[in-house]
Amino acid sequence: MSGSPLLEFIQQTINGLTLGSIYALIAIGYTMVYGIIGMINFAHGEIYMIGAYVGLLVITVLSLFGVDSISLILLATLAVSILVTGSYGWAVERLAYRPLRGSPRLVPLISAIGVSIFLQNYVQLGQGARDVSMQPVLVGGWRFGPEDGFQVYLSYMQVLIALITVVSMTVLTLFISRSRMGRACRACSQDRAMANLLGIDTDRVIALTFVLGAALAAVAGVLVSMYYGLVNPFIGFIAGLKAFTAAVLGGIGSIPGAMLGGVVLGLAESFASAYLRTEYKDVVAFALLIGVLLVRPSGLLGRPDVEKV
């Protein structure tokens, strides 16, 4: 039918924005840590994976106790997951990264990879390597289009993902721009040594950055467990790699860049899966990254590094 290509385009745009929202939430954790201490936290994907497991566990427990209120389930799951993953984020920074601060960059990088492998195997030993599934919490949605042709489907869960992503990013933006600790974070990203000389507790700021990144990863993990209803110990590696790609695409160290990079990457994968083949979605995503970096080496919204003298 004549309207089918347009409706298919709208459907893939919805799917891409949903996937991009998840990537953006995870990517912010990468870009915040890099913006302050100049290090890539490769264990961040595993923090997201732990958040997904915690979300699934809390939802299962609440279901066993007969709780059927969607709002109560969502709030309780987000609160517990943020608390647990925030603790993991703080512990990772305190035990694996802080003792290595001031070392050559390769040393904390190796430590980050080691923590990633440790967390993945830790969850695998505790939960097994198999997929763990659960019943969907929020079902249903809206359909648009002709009765006898292709219809655009917008699920309630996709709307929820979009709303929670917008709220999370708005709260983070207000915190960074208007709170005292937010200003301290910006000062550390500008010049950590000078911020320390001016009396800012940079260790506390860095720890807060890891906790905030872990909290956003927890939100993404909960949304993924509710959306797909399936988790395993290996989802953190793939999602972490894609989110890191999104952060670099948007401009590593830029929070708006991480948001934009996540959305662009999600749309690219969705359109590639629909109009080419599913196997080509990663090819298109990384080809897009290479193309953008060739034109803008600092990313879409990144700023070139200025050498301080």
Distance between the termini: 64 Å
How many helices in DSSP terms?
Answer: 11
Number of domains: 1
C-alpha Rg (nearest Å): 20 Å
Mean pLDDT: 89
The CATH C-level class name = Mainly Alpha
Largest sheet: 2 strands, antiparallel
Beta percentage is under 5%
CATH topology-level name: ABC transporter involved in vitamin B12 uptake, BtuC
**Uncertain segments of ≥5 residues (pLDDT<50)?**
none
Q: Based on CA inertia axes, which overall geometry fits? A: globular
Helix content: over 70%
Main sheet strand line-up = 1-4
By secondary-structure content and strand pairing, the structural class works out as mainly alpha
Order of secondary-structure elements:
HHHHEEEHHHHEHHH
Question: How many strand units?
Answer: 4
CATH architectural arrangement = Orthogonal Bundle
